[in-house]
Structures are given as structure tokens and as C-alpha cells.
Amino acid sequence: MHNIWKDMFVIGLPLAEKILRPIIVYAFLVISLRLSGKRELVQLNPFDLVVLLTLSNTVQNAIIGEDNSVLGGIIGATSLLVTNYLVVRFLYDHRKLDQLVEGRADVLVEGGKVRTRNLKRELITVPQLEAAARKQGFDSLSEVEQCVLEPGGTLTFLGKKPAVEDVRHQELLGKLERLAQEIALLRGSQPPARA
To answer: Lowest CB count within 10 Å: 40, 59, 132, 163, which one?
Structure first.
């Protein structure tokens, strides 16, 4: 019974190493994901998903080392959470540095026209963009006025607004329809006209 408690709560590595390992891996992953582009965060195809899943498994041993104790895992997890909190808090107070770390938004559709150069830079295909637009309720990209790939990896779509003439035309058609209905009601309630 003594070995069970020892395996669970006696740390197999020095405390400083248990804290530094997750911080180093955290920094590596943040830099690597930033360099790989925002696409990794938003448009996960099967290949990207496999990379992210195996990436977490690959760095697991770098984080925990040869220590499988519960206490060691808690210390490693706490180090990751505290590091993330401090980085997010620091970047919140330093917007220019945050913009450098997260990057800027990329406009993928502007004025209803797809910017293929920006799509190519972000490694997003037109069919992937069309699929994302359909998820947002657009039937096709022809209904999209603007699409922005945000620094956090989300796609923001803005629909085209109808032209003033189209709005007026629809209003007039509606009024004509109501007039036709009223005329039909009036004709139905009055006796037929004599010739």
C-alpha cells in the first residue's frame, strides 16, 4: 500500500522542472500555431485535426517527463493554466503586442468579391469558404458582402444589403398585392353591376 501512495504523490522530478516543462511547451505551441496561420484554428479538415490530436500526444511526455504521479500532473496542469492566465492578462493590457501575437484580421470577401490572394495566404479554398458561408445561413457567396477571418480564427460574414431600388420595388409589389386583395373583397361584397 505504501508504493501506491508514493507513486501518486511523490514527484519524480524536481519541482522547478515540473513547472518549467509546461511553460516551455506552452510557448512553443503558441509560437508554432501562430506561424502555421489562423486556418489551423478555424477550418479543421481531417488532416489538421489529426495534426492537432497527435501534437497534444507528442508534447505530453515533454510536459510530464518521467513523472506519472498525480501530484506531478496537478503541478504541470496548474503551471499551464497559470501561464495561460498571465499571458492573456498581459496581452489584454498591451494591445499592440496582442496584435503582434494574434495577428490581424484578413478580409476574404470584400464588396461581394472573393479575394483569392488572401484565401491562398490562409490556405482556405473557395469550397471551404462556401461551406462556412452556408453554416452561417447564406445560400452562396453571391449573398456575402464581406467575410473576415478574425485573428482568433473565426469567420465573420456580412450579407449584401438590397439596393434602394430593389427595396422600393418590393414595397410597391406588396402595396399592389394588398390593393388587389381589397378590390377583390369589395367586388365580392357588392351586388354585380348592371349593364
So the answer is: 163
Q: Which amino acid belongs to residue 32?
A: S
Sign of the alpha-carbon dihedral angle for 8, 76, 36, 85: positive
Find out whether 165 and 58 touch, Cβ atoms under 8 Å: no
Global model pTM greater than 0.85: no
* Amino acid residing at 70: V
Residue type, 71: L
DSSP secondary structure letter of residue 192: P
R_g (Cα) of the chain, nearest Å: 29
- Tell me the C-alpha distance between 92 and 98, whole Å: 7
Supply φ then ψ for residue 124, to 5 degrees: -115, 125
Cell of 32: 508554432
Residues 34 and 189: their CA atoms lie apart, in Å, by: 73
From the list 125, 152, 156, 157, the residue with the least C-alpha distance to 139 is 157
Instruction: Tell me the DSSP string of 39-92.
Output: HHHH---HHHHHHHHHHHHHHHHHHHTT---HHHHHHHHHHHHHHHHHHHHHHH
Identify the bridge partners of residue 122 per DSSP, sorted by sequence position: none
In the predicted structure, residue 194 carries a pLDDT above the cut 80: no
